[in-house]
Design brief:
Blueprint: H1 5-9, E1 25-28, E2 30-35, H2 37-44, H3 55-66, E3 78-80, E4 105-108, E5 113-116, H4 118-124, E6 136-140, E7 146-152, H5 156-159, H6 167-183, E8 186-191, H7 202-210, E9 217-223, H8 227-232, E10 241-249, H9 279-291, E11 295-300, H10 303-320, E12 328-331, H11 340-346, E13 349-352, H12 354-360, H13 364-372, H14 379-384, E14 388-391, H15 402-411, H16 431-437, H17 440-444, E15 463-466, E16 483-488, E17 491-495
Parallel strand pairs: 2-8, 3-4, 8-9, 9-10, 10-11, 11-12, 12-13, 13-14
Antiparallel strand pairs: 1-15, 4-5, 5-7, 6-7, 15-16, 16-17
């Protein structure tokens, strides 16, 4: 219960544990509004290239990991960032000689570009004559030879041929993921791949729930184009495991040059980005899903992509009538100034990831120029326009640490240390606003604000104990605050083992 000590102690009996936190800070359990649960869990068990800062280090890590595998195993994930070594894109030749019999598919950290080695290309039946696909690109060199790189829908040429994860692999990935979440104080996640056949976490989560081993509450999304599947699925939603939402795509990512902009990229005047789905398809899926009362999320990065989604949401609202639908745009990274007030006017939630701002801020201006960055990751502008903004991580694209996310939102200090006063500092927000975006607003964004998101009487006992009061310390120090304990449903699911954290 929440209330005065005298009333709380009236519930005390011989089984009650009483904790004196000695001034430590308690917050509602953090809610991560955007994760890729199974691929994130798999990344914890795979090669890590996120901080590989030279081509040689990239190759070395892949080669060392390949030595640990059995014949037939794939190397996946990686989450590389080519900006760390100057911007040259990797190529299959970097890893072919060290993985001659091991198929490899390594994703750029945004998951909108991937590198396949020759073994993977052979396995998938891809050669220099393979044609591009709509909404994707096979990158070839000046001689028309495969580089091993694929963008967006073209990645499916390889992904569709990879053997499905075995039950054991799924179990290991799921277990690693939920333990990682609770260690970061995350008690609920919105899994945007929850019912995606390739990365599905729902059935595994159901097994864990039945065995009383589930530690994190999950809102599991179905792909938007499969809205009929969600319509026909039996709804077994409860406080732990919930369905009813759909996730679709308009464009790709800024880092892969596949986010769609009205104007061309500053470093490539022939490039406006890449539409993954047509506006006609999106309109049909969204209108039909909304008519059935399904909850729609749409990924949009570039300013043109966001404009297209807002237009479709507006049309769907007019066609299906006003109701409490809580449409969401996932990312909402780069916005046209005139589109910012439309979020509030249309009741659209901006589901954003603040860590991306301090990551992309290292190089975004080179891609889209000094004017467009003024409305990039426009947290403050959206809030001042009375829009609803919820936060998440996009894990494994970024760390699933709400504390790092809050730090990013309030300081906007880029990871390279070159913006100590903040990148586009006008868009910094208060600690209280950022905390709300990870708690009460995040609960609202999944229609759960009646049961979680605040420390209130009658709500679920999901809460986190932090080493410091983040509302009172120097914002720069928030990234150093520790999660000491995490409770879900009143049950302790994580405690720090560090003597310094006790």
């Amino acid at each position: 219960m929440v209330g005065e000590n005298v009333k709380a102690l009236s519930y005390k009996n011989e089984d009650t544990e009483v904790l004196d936190l000695k001034g430590k800070f308690i917050t509602p359990g953090f809610i991560d509004s955007h994760v890729h649960l199974m691929t994130g869990g798999r990344s914890l068990l795979n090669v890590d290239l996120r901080d590989a800062n030279t081509p040689e280090e990239f190759s070395r890590r892949v080669g060392n990991f390949a030595k640990t595998l059995e014949l037939g195993d794939w190397i996946m994930e990686g989450n590389w960032d080519h900006t760390l070594w100057g911007g040259e894109l990797p190529k299959k030749e970097w890893i072919d000689s060290i993985t001659p019999n091991t198929p490899v598919l390594l994703f750029r950290l945004d998951w909108h570009m991937a590198l396949a080695n020759s073994a993977a290309l052979k396995f998938a039946g891809i050669d220099n004559k393979t044609l591009d696909v709509i909404g994707g690109e096979i990158i070839k060199d000046s001689n028309g030879q495969l580089t091993g790189l694929f963008k967006d829908n073209a990645m499916n040429l390889v992904l569709d041929k990879i053997p499905a994860m075995t039950p054991k692999q799924k179990d290991l990935a799921f277990s690693a993921a939920q333990n990682y979440f609770v260690s970061n104080g995350v008690t609920s996640v919105h899994d945007v791949d929850g019912l995606n056949k390739d990365f599905e976490s729902y059935s595994v989560a159901r097994k864990y729930l039945d065995n009383n081993d589930l530690k994190v509450r999950i809102y599991a999304a179905t792909p938007l184009n499969e809205w009929r599947k969600l319509r026909d699925m039996k709804d077994e939603s409860d406080e732990w495991l919930k369905t009813g939402c759909l996730k679709g795509f308009v464009d790709g990512s800024l880092g892969s040059h596949t986010a769609v902009f009205h104007d061309h990229y500053s470093d490539n005047h022939s490039d406006h980005g890449l539409f993954i789905n047509t506006s006609d398809s999106l309109y049909s899926w969204i209108v039909n899903a909304d008519k059935l009362g399904q909850h729609v999320f749409v990924h949009a990065i570039g300013d043109s992509a966001n404009h297209v989604v807002l237009d479709i949401f507006e049309k769907a609202t007019k066609e299906n009538g006003r109701k409490d639908r809580r449409f969401r745009i996932e990312h909402a990274q780069h916005l046209l100034p005139d589109d910012i007030p439309r979020f509030s006017q249309l009741g659209v939630i901006g589901s954003m990831q603040p860590y991306h701002a301090i990551d992309d801020g290292r190089w975004a201006e080179d891609y889209i120029g000094s004017e467009r960055i003024k409305t990039s990751y426009a947290f403050k502008a959206l809030l001042e326009a009375d829009a609803t903004v919820t936060f998440g991580s996009d894990w494994a694209v970024a760390p699933a640490s709400p504390l790092l996310g809050i730090y990013a939102a309030v300081t906007r200090r880029t990871l390279d240390g070159k913006n100590p006063n903040g990148w586009v500092p006008e868009e910094k927000i208060t600690i209280e606003a950022a905390l709300k975006a990870y708690t009460s607003t995040a609960a609202f964004a999944s229609f759960d604000d009646d049961i979680k998101g605040t420390l209130s009487s009658g709500k679920l006992a999901d809460f986190v104990i932090l080493s410091d009061n983040i509302t009172q310390i120097d914002p720069v120090k928030i990234k150093d605050v520790k999660v000491l304990r995490t409770y879900v449903g009143g049950k302790q699911v994580f405690t720090s083992t560090s003597p310094n954290d006790r």
